[in-house]
Amino acid sequence: MTNMARLAGLDCGFRASYLDYATLCTQLQRWADAFPDLCRLRALGQSTEGRTIWHLTLGPDPDRLRPAVWVDGNMHACEVAGSSVALAIAEDVLRLHLSGEDALPGVPAHVRERLRDVLFYVVPRMSPDGAECVLTTGRFVRSAPRDRRQNREAPRWQRGDLDGDGQSLLMRIPHPAGEFVESREVAGLMVARRLDDAGPYYKLFPEGTIEPFDGSNIPDPHYLSDNQTDLNRNFPYAWMPDHVQPGAGDFPTSEPETRAVVEFAAAHPEIFAWLNLHTFGGVFIRPLGDKPDSKMHPGDLALYRQIGAWAEELTGYPMVSGFEEFTYEPDKPIYGDLTEYAFNQRGAVSYVVELWDLFKRLGKPRPKKFVDYYSEITREDLVALARFDSDENAGRLFRPWRRFDHPQLGPVEIGGANPVVGVWNPPYERLAEVCSAHAAHLLRVAALTPAVRVREVDRAAAAGDVTRVTVSVENHGYLPTYVLASAVKLDFNEPLWARAETRGCALVDAGHAIREVGHLEGWGRGFASGEEPLAYGESKGSSTDRRLTYLVRGDGVLALRVGSCRTGWTTLEVSISPASS
């Protein structure tokens, strides 16, 4: 059986369905057992309900330090498509290493070779407790189904499955001041009330109970009413407390999931690219999250423009500025989110993907700011969604309304939308194309890696038994060794260093045993950087390489180790024999 046949035989169906925790664990363990030289499975951390947050390291010789790419999915509980895409990326990386010249059709051989020297860190499900809750009950959970808040006197909604159908849907109650009516075009579809609508009118609430309930007052529903923390507001960069940033948690990294990610990232400065997978919308979101593009370093902006151009080409999704097109309130950034942490504190080329371009599928024109898609939903859009559900989603979204005697509110009807498949995540029938497109894009970004090489340039006799050895330290990668211009200031983003050891011979100048090489530029310029051939047509000079000369006395071997904690290390050994130099 060929390696590719073995790999195909291990598939647990993640490109065609959303895996529960047990099946996801099976998938990861199968890969680790079948390909131990390429796939290492470790626990990144543990959830409060005792589930392991799994972490895959993909690539040969995983302990050899070298540039690495991080991929995470499903930090928000209902966004399970992120797990599928993360697993698809992992499978494509395995395919890259297992199938030789047949790997990844359409990817040039030299790009495949560069990718084979990159490590991939993949966390397919950052919030296993939350995802399991959504997949087994349909209940909405932002990140994890837990609430440690001490202030419990105010009434709040506790979502749950009341009628035992295995889903947590909506409840509707007739009320003369109700804000909703049933659509005349689609039976059972609830739409916002208009002035000319005749009744009956309804109040809509989440299926669940009110805790505590005084017998009369119904609280406003809130997406965090029964689950305290949004993991994507709990990271340390620009963290703000809950009264400023809802969902922030008790303190930065108060949650075991975020703490596990931050601890790993802090110990791995080699991570140069970071993909944070979400749903839904069909958009890539890049830094800056707290400032306009005019405040971004031009080199960083040009790099993201290039990544955005590939995004449009391979996925059809645009890439937008987090601050300029994805702030929910004007000029108010999101605090404590992961990609801003990865960009600002870890110096990584980080970005979010909101998988599943539902708005485009519904034919909705793009607004001036992408984020306005989510708030500018019309009655016509909901009717289009109902038709899409019937025609292309096997009717998975909408459930009929059924009478139910609520223990607190009396007679209600339970039904409405179950958005897990079709809104929050793509239909099963579309999942494979989403996985393939985003795996292809991530691999193209991974190919931007810095690539430090060292080669001998010259070896010549000097006076007596001394040999002069000249080597060239070169960066063959697209990205500079510092990765981002804005990241040069970070303490761990050290320059390249050269360490020289001798066997049998000796350095004439012992001070050259450790030498600072400095940072090296890459060959890439990004997109729309103002440095295209029409403008200048000239190279940057020798900024991509640096020459070092050593004087060595006697016969033996000069062993060089060049690199940094950011780029990893490369070695060169030069045989020294003055008589033959």
Please provide a written account of the structure.
The protein has 3 domains: 279 residues, 3-Layer(aba) Sandwich (Aminopeptidase), CATH 3.40.630.10; 117 residues, no CATH class; 129 residues, Immunoglobulin-like. It has 13 helices and 24 strands. The longest helix has 19 residues. Strands 1-2-4-3-11-14-12-13 form an 8-stranded mixed β-sheet, sandwiched between helices. Strands 9-6-16-15 form a 4-stranded antiparallel β-sheet, with no helix packed on it. Helix 7 links the parallel strand 12 and strand 13. It is an alpha+beta fold. Helix 3 crosses helix 13 and helix 7 runs antiparallel to helix 13. The mean pLDDT is 93. The protein is 24% helix and 26% strand.
Short description:
With about 575 residues, the protein is an alpha+beta fold. It contains 13 helices and 24 strands.
Features:
eight-stranded mixed beta sheet; 581 residues; Aminopeptidase; single chain; 24% helix
